[in-house]
Amino acid sequence: MESDNGKGLILAVASSVFIGSSFIVKKKGLKRAAANGTRAGYGGYTYLLEPLWWAGMVTMIVGEAANFVAYIYAPAVLVTPLGALSIIISAVLAHFLLKEKLKKMGVLGCVSCIVGSVVIVIHAPKEQTPDSVQEIWNLATQPAFLVYVAITMSIVLALILHFEPLCGQTNILVYIGICSLMGALTVMSIKAIGIAIKLTMEGVNQIGYPQTWIFLMVAATCVVIQLIYLNKVHYLIFGSSGTVRWYESRKSSNEEHLITLYSPEY
What we know:
The chain has 266 residues and is mainly α. 70% of the residues lie in helices and 5% in strands. The radius of gyration is 21 Å and the shape is globular. This is Probable magnesium transporter.
């Protein structure tokens, strides 16, 4: 078990390095694509024709593959927090490669991610591997979990159908909320698929279970939705010119007003 946790730990860290690097490459691709068509934040898909974006996507796929394998060997409570390291990798690379200054609060956030990840990894519980995908399915169809899934999907649909058209372009929490909520379901599905693969490799075939394919479809759907809204998050934060906001400072006789505006050119 300790050996499996070690393998999962190494794979999770490697995954964070690849994924964190991919954000930088994808950002360059998104900015280049925005100059030639409608940006993703407004429903454009010209980035699909940009080779640099695909280079970042391939890097992300490699990282996600490592993350997927990590779930086979280690508990989700150990692997998932290590994903926060990708944020640190992105922040550091952006500071040096994209000349985006990492401010004091950003450094504090990175330190908090490291401390939190280390604490969780040190205290990660031992995990008992289920005997079959059917056992995972029985757990996933418990009333409490089904209620959780129903609430999660209701919130996601509300964010997509109501809040995104209403304030998606001005409130980043809409897109982050969609990605985060779908990510919770992705982790569950990926863990189930990972266990199915591990059991199959050990001689206990899980391919014949319809539940395996259901988990696979759920995972694929969640990943696609996350990718779409993650690209919108990138544009909302950075815009086509590297920053989504510009600031206008005006002085009156009594006070200085700092007005944050969303530039229409982004």
